[in-house]
Amino acid sequence: MASLNAIAQKLVAPGKGILAADESEPTIAKRFASIGLDSNLELRRDYREMLFRATDAMTNYISGVILTEETLEQSAMDGTPFRTLLAEADVVPGIKVDRGAFPMPGSDGEKITEGLDGLRQRLAHYASLGAGFAKWRGVITINETAPTRNNIRANAHALARYASLCQEAGIVPVVEPEVLADGEPGDHSIQRCQDVTGETLETVFKELRLAGVDLSGMLLKPNMVLAGHRAGDKPSVDEVARKTRETLLQFVPAAVPGIAFLSGGQTDEEATAHLSAMNEIGNMPWHLTFSYGRALQNVALRTWNGKRENFAPAQEAFAHRARMNSLASLGQWRRDIDLAA
Ligand code: 5MM
Questions:
Q1: pLDDT number for residue 18
Q2: How many domains does the chain contain in total?
Q3: What is the interface pTM, i.e. ipTM, of the complex?
Q4: Distance from the alpha carbon of residue 120 to the mean position of ligand 1, in angstroms
């Protein structure tokens, strides 16, 4: 069995990143509704089959895919298990193991992620199906009274308990504390996001240490430091890159092999430009790459439009975004290359 560190290193190999395709049923239903489709088992299968059969994108730019429980055990229309398609592309299958974020008792708009009960047994099952890594997302809200210290600690504690259970099962935990940029009211400044992201990361690493998590056998999946989506001032690409890098350098130990960002709150191009700008500055102890859901899938989803005959153009759209983010993970993306394609 590959060591946790070897799997983590493979996931953040130069020029590669993670495809987050672990939309829960309510989230994928929302994505499908945006193109006028109802969500059902066959359409979800077709959509994921389109992504996993995108040979160019999957073999050249994607190191791992985060799946849902449904997809981990699902097969393409011709009966080929999705796990086989991923293995053929040398892509590591991952699994989202949290059960979603629910209202935090006694709090105004905050959420706490659930899913620890029975997790040890579930992880053993996912490992037997070949999952090499897992993902758990904790959501931190910014509003007039949030985040509270209590909410940050509760989410960090859950992340640490999840991470230690993963490592016990031989699975690399991807630890995702997301300070929301597109929550309500969403008018906070970039400075406020930086402060909250710093406090969150500090608390998460304190809990990970207390839980005895081996930092060399995990990955961090954080938000970038952004202004809220309804903020008056939109920071420049340079400012986002500088502030995000600064915050990570202050709070993320060098023993962590890699950082793979989420894209929430950004356009496709912003998510790519910010990642590239950070890698251009360089001088960081970890590999910095992407673990994007929306920023990799938006155009492909619209191009697919629910039809198998659109697989080829949708796969091209996906490969284009994957290649642009691959360049960004090397600090080599440029707007003109993106637009020329
Ligand atoms: C793909 O979406 C993931 C699952 O979200 P839900 O449980 O809410 O359905 C999400 O955790 C995702 O992996 C990350 O947020 C990254 O996706 P984005 O779209 O932010 O890059």
A1: 99
A2: 1
A3: 0.94
A4: 23
Per-residue tokens: 161: 């308990």
Closest Cα to atom 13 of ligand 1: 20
Contact assessment for residue 219 and residue 259, using Cβ atoms and an 8 Å cutoff: yes
d(CA 268, CA 21): 16
Residue with tokens 């340079």: 238
- Identify whether 221 is a catalytic site residue: yes
SS3 116: coil
Q: Look up the pTM and report it.
A: 0.98
The residue whose CA has the least distance to atom 15 of ligand 1 is 262
Boundaries of domain holding 161 = 4-340
Cβ-based neighbour number of residue 212 at 10 Å: 10
In this structure, what CATH number is given to the domain that contains residue 320? Answer: 3.20.20.70
Name which of 298, 300, 274, 301 is nearest 288 in CA terms: 274
CA 101 to chain centre: 15
Quote the pLDDT of residue 1: 64
Pocket test for ligand 1, best of 23, 28, 62, 220 (most atoms within 8 A of CB): 23
End-to-end Cα separation, the chain, in angstroms: 40
Could you give the C-alpha distances from 321 to 28, 51, 167, 250, 262, in angstroms and in order? 20, 12, 32, 30, 14
